[in-house]
Amino acid sequence: MRPHAKANRRRGSGVELQIAPMIDVVFLLLMYFMVATDFSPAEEVFRLDLPDQIVGADDPLQLLDEPLRIRVVAAGARSDQARVSIDGPWDAAGSAEGLRVFLYEAVLPRGTLFLPDHPIVIVPSEQVGWGHVVAVFNAAVAAGCTNVTLETSP
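RESULT FIELD:
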């Protein structure tokens, strides 16, 4: 009986784990994911339209520092209509709502032209009504701009 008890103890005493098939499966999964992964989107060249020359900037990717000047002028003989224009290379605005859309798309994080605290100066003409100036101011604030001021005439 003695040898039989010793054999039972050997069989039930330890669990043997086959590690070689597990390593094979891990290497097969590694090869599968390496073959199935598509690395080409990270290597693509994306088109980036930059202006030819930015005055006063050494780095073409540097954000503009000078204030954005927004002019509000009377559209006719009466002051019940106003035209909004932006100084610079932008053909945007036209109205307070157009200005809000332009600034909303240009301010970070949605756009890439301005930071939210970029200085914006509203320059009203003498003939335009204050209601239009306030509408332009509200449009700039609604777009997420935090540094909006009015320029007073000397």
